[in-house]
Amino acid sequence: MLTPEYVFKDITHITPAFLKEKHIKALLLDVDNTLTTHGSQHLRQEISQWLETMKQAGIPLAIVSNNTKKRVEPFAKMLGLEYVSLGCKPWPGGLHRARKKLGVCRHEIALVGDQLFTDRLAGWAYGIPVLVVEPLDKDISKGILLRRKLEKPFFDKFHKRGGKIL
Predict the structure, then answer these.
(1) Beta bridge partners of 130
(2) Regarding the domain delimited by 6-160, which CATH topology (the fold level of the hierarchy) does it fall under?
(3) For residues 98 and 146, which has the higher predicted lDDT (pLDDT)?
(4) End-to-end CA distance of the chain, in Å?
(5) Residue 111 CA: distances (Å) to CA of 124, 140, 160
(6) Which of the residues 96, 108, 128, 139 could staple to 104 if both were Cys, CB 3.0 to 4.6 A apart?
(7) What stretches of 9-143 adopt beta strand conformation (E)?
(8) What is the pLDDT of residue 137?
């Protein structure tokens, strides 16, 4: 349940072709260290281009973050995306609320995020695939640094099973 199914170098390596191959029609997106660095309201140019590519491909997108509305709302509005703040991942309720906002079925969505103990576990609990991305930047929070150490055996298992970073 914690070992990733898919790991990407970053979000820009997730393509419409990959999503089509996996029958994924919509994405739920984490914010911190997935779309941007922790606490930032700025988007890297390549991620901005990726979002535009997804929108042009007709892929509905919504943000699901454990962060507060004060952090998430301005970022989501800047991107023109639906959002759920205080998503309480790993509990799946935030994923459910975001999916409803997009108007898609559960079997049509995937979650994109950088942490196994929040994102991967929430996706598993909700019964959807999770596209794990490597963090955009170094973590500074002691809690996240600890979780990164605890994640290592699950990434090792992924690689031992022949998993490759896409």
Answers:
(1) 111
(2) Rossmann fold (3.40.50)
(3) 98
(4) 20
(5) 10, 23, 23
(6) 108
(7) 26-29, 61-64, 82-84, 109-113, 130-133
(8) 85
pLDDT > 80? residue 126 = yes
Domain boundaries defined on the chain: 6-160
Helices and strands (DSSP H and E) totals, the chain: 6, 6
Q: What is the mean pLDDT of residues 125-153?
A: 90
pLDDT, tens only, 106-120: 999 999 999 999 999
Question: From the CA atom positions of the chain, what is the Rg in Å?
Answer: 15
Question: Tokens 């609320």, residue?
Answer: 97
Answer positive or negative: Cα dihedral of 158, 162, 165, 166: negative
Prediction pTM value = 0.93
Element (DSSP H or E) covering residue 6 = strand 6-8
Whether residue 82 contacts residue 95, with contact meaning beta carbons closer than 8 Å, is answered with: no
Burial classification of residue 165, based on how many CB atoms lie within 10 Å of its CB (0-12 exposed, 13-18 middle, 19 or more buried) = middle
Which residue's structure tokens are 């998993």? 163
CB-based contact 64:83 (threshold 8 Å) = yes
pLDDT of residue 99: 97
Q: What is the distance between the alpha carbons of residues 115 and 121, in angstroms, rounded to a whole number?
A: 9
pLDDT digits (tens, 9 = 90+) for 29-48: 999 999 998 888 899 999 99
